[in-house]
Amino acid sequence: MKKQTIACLIFLSTLPILSFGQQTAESSQRTATPLQLFEIQRGEVEFFKTLVYRFEIAWEETDVQSMTDLRDGLLKLMEAEINQLADKTNISAIANDRLAEQKACLKKAKATPLAANDSAFGKQAEQTKALFHDFIKLMEADLTEQVEALRSFEKQ
User: Fold this and answer.
1) Is residue 46 packed enough to be buried (19+ CB in 10 Å), middle (13-18) or exposed (0-12)?
2) Sequence-distant (≥ 6) Cβ neighbours of residue 85 within 8 angstroms
3) In whole angstroms, how large is the CA radius of gyration of the chain?
4) Which of 101, 110, 120, 143 is most exposed, with the fewest beta carbons within 10 Å of its own?
5) 126-133: which pairs have CB atoms within 8 A and are 24 or more residues apart?
6) pLDDT tens-place string over residues 79-115
7) Left, alpha or beta for 62 (phi > 0: left; psi -120 to 50: alpha)?
């Protein structure tokens, strides 16, 4: 009798955990609305801008290690953004051109080395910073296109 009571109590104590797990699984299956997707992408653009700003501060403070670390992180974010755009199936011709420009920007940024022992470090850092700003402009252009698409979607 005692074993059955203990087993029953253990089972009853796990019910809230099992119930919560089911609720969590159901919420992850929902699809995001176009407005939610826009807000997510806007947050990604703001995060990218913040990292570029930190890169500029590291440049002003001549913190080479921070600059190289931030550059690596920004390059990974650029790759993720490009992959995300490349995965979309129904993109406009303008967006396709922007994607090509983003790929070129990433290629140039990767080709520009950033090594502290290089005598052209300052020039390379300036070029890298300019490429990051170009990429931000392209990301913002994509956001503008999404705003127009959302407006036309709301009118329907």
Assistant:
1) exposed
2) 91, 95, 98, 99, 102, 142
3) 24
4) 120
5) 128/55, 128/71, 129/52, 129/55, 129/56, 129/59, 131/105, 132/52, 132/55, 132/74, 133/52
6) 998 888 878 767 777 888 888 899 999 899 888 877 7
7) left
